[in-house]
Amino acid sequence: MDATAHHYAVTVADLEGAVEFYRDVLELDVVSRFSVSGDAFATGVGVDGASAEFVHLDAGSTRVELVSYDPEGDERPEPQLNEPGATHLGLEVDDLASVYEGLPDGVETLSEPQTTESGTTILFVVDPDGNLVELLEP
Asked: Which CATH class is domain 89-137?
């Protein structure tokens, strides 16, 4: 197998709210919008009668895929990074301090930027659906 990264998917409840966050706050460009439905899709994702709306955003060497399903699943508890199965999107930035200072009011973070013992500075922000996004400066 010669696999390469194609996209990282984030399931959201409010697609337009998520697009605003990822486009306006994280400054990712919208590449495409589309919807998918039908038996093959529902079977493929394992959700009876599923249809979904998708937005792809440009994140450099990969895409971020925002997806909103119908029917919508149950809410999950607030994510914790130390739980098995936890996921997050990681985005590299040039100047994390400036990004942090420029975050709009109301954007939740787990902490202020922190420089780890590896020398990487990290900042986790929370999207409108509670998904975690790590911003990092190597």
From this structure: alpha beta
Distance of CA 94 to the CA centre of its chain: 19
Spatial contact of 49 and 34, defined as CB atoms under 8 Å apart: no
Q: Does 80 score more than 90 pLDDT? A: no
* Preceding omega of 71 cis (within 30 degrees of 0): yes
Q: How many CA atoms lie within 13 A of 98 on its CB side?
A: 4
Q: Report pTM.
A: 0.88
What pLDDT sits at residue 20? Answer: 97
CA angle 96, 101, 107 (to 5 degrees): 95
Say which CATH architecture domain 7-70 belongs to.
Answer: Roll (3.10)
**Which of 67, 87, 70 lies closest to 9, judged by CA?**
67
Q: What is the pLDDT of residue 87?
A: 87
Q: Are 69 and 35 in contact (CB under 8 A)?
A: no
